[in-house]
């Protein structure tokens, strides 16, 4: 006789085996149904009602240690850095924490908008840190580390005290101290919600697509007229007050190497080919291209600039990639890179040989 557990296990296996067949019936020749394990690996978002939030806990002190080693490179030790990304902290007050509305958002003379000024829900911070941070190693933080980093960030904004430990048990209480918690509304009719129930707010996309007589697909794009291209200096070197906003290298003709908007300045893409494609692909695989263009400064110097400065010095470049550092190309530091030895060696050799394409 089979036990109840055996019968349940058999039914579960049968359901999993039947799912791919069902997908093939509905969409012949197109993939298969995702397994429960595959769905779980993607289903990691955390909602404002904290559905999806895993159990865990992390203190402000623990978060500070992680922050200094893995976050400060881009965000500064106090979340105030404006060199790479917009500042995370600043512009909020104790009164904002009481009211839930950030008064500074109404000031036209304030130089910018920080993350803690805008974000209304602590779940947004937790979810984004968990999915996308650190910049060079997304999803590498453990659950308790995400809690700790979130706690430290909240402490920087004086939302929680220094001895606080954030957890799934008290995060809803912390939500009630978010400076801009009352600053979000659904009255704009951009998505369904409770505001639609009384019938006053209708979605703004009620039209029906006709899909007839559409004509040829239009081509869209933008360009600067040649007479205006460099009229006010190189746009690549001009940043807004808040954030590192990069533009075209207007000292060169449009589409030439060095132009961030041009079609030739591609790093690690399928368009690369030839004997150096493997090394170039490694710069994409290990997220080097997130901070380095092929030509011209992005966050860090361009690969071609590095190649010119350290021509023939593969050993030095290999050591520099491992150790990281700052001060040679500006104040923005590069974090140490823990990469496979053969990959580091290949990229260093490519740079030392002139970063050929």
Main features:
357 residues, mainly alpha, Cytochrome Bc1 Complex, Chain D, domain 2, 13 helices
Shape descriptor reads globular
User: Tally the helices: what do you get?
Assistant: 13
Number of domains: 3
Portion of residues in beta strands equals under 5%
Q: What is the mean predicted local confidence, pLDDT?
A: 80
Q: How helical, in percent, are the residues?
A: 25-40%
Order of SSEs, N→C? HHEHHHHHHEHHHHH
Name of the top-level CATH class of the largest domain: Mainly Alpha
State the end-to-end distance.
68 Å
What CATH calls the topology of the largest domain is Cytochrome Bc1 Complex, Chain D, domain 2
Write down how many β-strands occur, each being a DSSP E stretch of 2 or more residues.
Answer: 2
Low-confidence segments, ≥5 residues, pLDDT <50?
17-21, 240-245, 256-272
For the biggest β-sheet, the strand order reads 1-2
CATH superfamily of the largest domain: Cytochrome c-like domain
Broad structural category = mainly alpha
Assign the CATH architecture of the largest domain.
Orthogonal Bundle
Biggest beta sheet attributes: 2 strands, antiparallel
Radius of gyration: 25 Å
